[in-house]
Write a structure and sequence with these properties.
It is built from six helices and no strands. The chain has about 150 residues and is mostly helical. The longest helix has 29 residues, at about 95-125.
Length: about 150
């Protein structure tokens, strides 16, 4: 049964566009941090650090895939990712649930911003043929690095 679920997840990830994949990564990172906080507060440091390790893997993937030169805010976003990765690592090393909560507080507005950008892309994709996308739609596509 686990292999069927794994195949389903792999297929779902392979068929989504870059914008949706990015929002899925953020959703999963939030879930990992939430689970880690719960485990750490319950005294299960081993399980908590495993969830934090997965969140770290996601941040590392975001860092690798970020094209810093592609847009004006790229360098700043990379700095945020570097800080977040360091804090997730420290949270796991020290078993610090409060530090993990601070990481979540940093991730949440980023997740919301990327979701808004992905929604903008979806709206521009549904723009009727022959009409021009708005300036905001063009900016959103550029921000995601998928336009």
């Amino acid at each position: 049964m686990h292999s069927v679920r794994s195949q389903y997840v792999a297929s779902a990830v392979a068929t989504v566009g870059p914008a949706r994949l990015l929002t899925m990564l953020y959703e999963r990172m939030l879930l990992d941090v939430d689970r880690a906080v719960g485990c750490l507060r319950a005294g299960d440091r081993v399980e908590g650090t495993q969830h934090l390790a997965h969140a770290q893997e996601i941040v590392a993937e975001l860092m690798v895939s970020l094209q810093v030169e592609a847009w004006e805010g790229g360098a700043q976003l990379m700095s945020i990712y570097q800080y977040l990765l360091a804090e997730l690592i420290e949270s796991g090393v020290k078993g610090d649930a409060d530090r993990a909560v601070a990481c979540r507080d940093l991730i949440m507005p980023l997740a919301e911003a990327w979701q808004d950008a992905a929604d903008g892309l979806a709206r521009s994709a549904s723009t009727p043929a022959g009409s021009m996308p708005t300036r905001d739609d063009a900016m959103t596509a550029g921000l995601l690095g998928v336009g």
